[in-house]
Amino acid sequence: MRGVDLCAIGDSFVEGRGDTGTDGAFRGWVPRLAGQLGLRSTRVRNLGEHGATTAMVCADQLARAVAGRPPLVGVIVGVNDLVSDYHPRRFAENLSTIHSTLNATGATVFTASYPDIPGRLPVPPAFTELLRDRFARANEVLADVCRDTGTLLLDIAVESRWDSDAVWSEDGLHPNASGHSLFAQTVAERIAHTRDTDLAA
Predict the structure, then answer these.
(1) 117 located within any domain
(2) CB-count exposure of residue 200 (10 Å: 0-12, 13-18, 19+)
(3) Which residues does UniProt call coiled coil (predicted)?
């Protein structure tokens, strides 16, 4: 996977689920971001997989991403841990492994916090509150990992735009085309700001 300018790893948020193109395939934020950054599609790799957990990323996607030595890497993973197979210590350790490994390559690494997906899922109120507590704790862990490793954190969990139904699919779990477009725009703006700040330093 040599010659990669942008690599994205993670779950169905990365895969592009919720944003189906005219050919029936998922589009998502990865090619949208590549377009905004002026990257050729042949130099972009999307390793996102539906249902992927942090453990699955550590076991498979992480090594494949590092092998390409891309200068820009996006990571979105963890929701499947939180809603189905949650072990707090393993979750934190996996996030730390993913982000420390990627940042050690010298790449610019970015990720995003976990928005209020629990509030959109058709589950009993008691389970909604349980999940919200997990998501809140997970965001604290992710913030600590990003601070320790240097990953750029897009804190979409506190952005009002992500509270709107207009950016989510009917399943409440995946962004729709508007949501994927919004995320790509948010990442592009953050990267531009970071580069401008580095140049000014």
Answers:
(1) yes
(2) exposed
(3) none
Decide if 1 is inside a domain.
no
DSSP notation for 14-58: HHTTT-B-TTSSB--HHHHHHHHHT--GGGEEE---TT--HHHII
Q: Quote the tokens at residue 38.
A: 């002026």
What would the two tokens of residue 144 be? Answer: 């600590």
Domain count, the chain: 1
pTM over 0.90: yes
> Can you give the residue range of the structural domain that contains 65?
6-200
Contacting residues for 120 by C-beta, under 8 A, at least 6 apart: 168, 172, 173
Whether 20 is covered by a domain: the verdict is: yes
Closest CA to 117 of 54, 177, 162: 162
Whether 129 is covered by a domain: the verdict is: yes
Q: For residue 43, give the CATH number of its domain.
A: 3.40.50.1110
